[in-house]
Amino acid sequence: MRAPTNLPRPHAASLWRAMAGRVPTMDAPVSTGAPLARDLDVEVAIIGAGYSGLSAAHALQQRGVDCVVLDANPIGWGASGRNGGVVSSKFRLSFPSIASSHGLDVAIRMHRLAHDGVRAVQSLIDEFNLERARFEHTGSLRCAHTERALASICAEADWVRNTLKDTSMSVLTRAQIEHETGSKGFVGGVLSADAGTILPLEYVRGLAAGVTARGVPVYESTPVIDMQRADNARVLLRAPGGAVRAKQVIVATNAYSNLTDATSQYHRELVPFRSAMIATASLPPELDARLMVNGRSYTETRRMMKWFRKVDGRMLFGGRDAFGKEGELTGFDALQRAMVALFPDLAHVPVQYRWSGYVGMTFNALPHMGRSDDRTTFCLGYNGAGVAMASLIGQHAAALALGEKPELAMLAQEGLRPVPFHALRAPGVRLVAAWYQFLDAVGA
Ligand SMILES: Cc1cc2nc3c(=O)[nH]c(=O)nc-3n(C[C@H](O)[C@H](O)[C@H](O)COP(=O)(O)OP(=O)(O)OC[C@H]3O[C@@H](n4cnc5c(N)ncnc54)[C@H](O)[C@@H]3O)c2cc1C
Question: Which domain holds residue 416?
Answer without folding.
Answer: 15-83+201-270+364-425
